[in-house]
Amino acid sequence: VARIWSEVLCVDPVGIYDNFFELGGHSLAAVQIVSRIVQKFHVELTISALFEAPTVAAMAERLELDGLEQNKLAAPSIRPVSRTTELPLSFAQERLWFLDQFVPNNAGYNVLSAIRLKGPLHSRILQQSIELIARRHETLRTSFTERAGRPIQVIAESVTIDLPLVDLPGLPECEREAEVRRLASEATQWPFDLTKAPLFRAKLLRLDTEDHVLVTVIHHIVSDGWSMDVFFRDLGVSYEALSRGQPVSLP
Q1: Other C-beta atoms within 10 Å of 63: how many?
Q2: What is the bridge-based pairing of β-strands 165-167 and 200-208?
Q3: Are 133 and 234 in contact (CB under 8 A)?
Q4: DSSP class of residue 19?
């Protein structure tokens, strides 16, 4: 259990009496920890268990009390679902879809990310990397429509993701950072049309020859903080491979 906490929270070592929340734990980390415990020990566990047992010692005791050895459960396998039928929304997606119907053109659920890129950069290869990730992850090709009074997901076979380049070297260096923040904030203000994929956009800001900022905005109905970690991991691997003329190998 301590090893799982250490891997998810990136804290080493983790003491058995350290508190999950004091170590920097949050909701996404809680999901990962519970998922790994279920997978490792084949037990039935909910997120609330981590709130009730927020230390390694308390969690271990809970697992023992739940009859870890006597009542092992077979974790259900994740199976692909046919794409030939209508795909429902998750409960969280339904809430966001309803809010969008209730208040159209609302940018309140746009998720902004910005990363600094230092060194030589090929913008065309970066765009190709983003398009490759969109082909890999269906959520970046998903839109939402209504059928018979209920929302459904629609996955496009392909999408086009532009990567406009904004040059900032003409500004004095002391003003560039402020302009980057202004443009990033401005990018979050444009609402998405949930009926049109992709619910994702990107912009590349060039501060200098070897100094860029990649700004991305995505609607929360198709992503969250955990997902964006996956996106940027895949982006780094894809860009490095394509820039070397090598095939992209992702798990």
Answers
A1: 18
A2: parallel
A3: yes
A4: B
Please identify which residue in the block is written with the tokens 């009390």: 65
* Mean confidence (pLDDT) of the chain: 91
Q: Is the pLDDT of residue 72 over 90?
A: no
Going by the DSSP 8-state scheme, the letter that residue 87 receives in this structure is: B
Left (φ > 0), alpha (ψ -120 to 50) or beta: where does 148 sit?
left
Distance between the two ends of the chain, CA-based, in angstroms? 25
Structure tokens given for 114: 């910005």
Residue 210 pLDDT > 60: yes
- Whole-number pLDDT of residue 203: 96
Amino acid at 176: R
Helix H segments across 67-167? Answer: 91-102, 123-136
The answer to whether 192 and 165 are in contact (CB under 8 A) is no
Nearest-angstrom CA–CA distance, 250 and 237: 7
Kindly compute the dihedral angle of the four CA atoms of residues 48, 51, 57, 58, in this order, to the nearest 10 degrees: -70
What residue type is 17 in one-letter code? Answer: Y
Contact 140, 155 (CB under 8 A): no
Q: Which of 199, 204, 239 is nearest to 219 (CA)?
A: 199
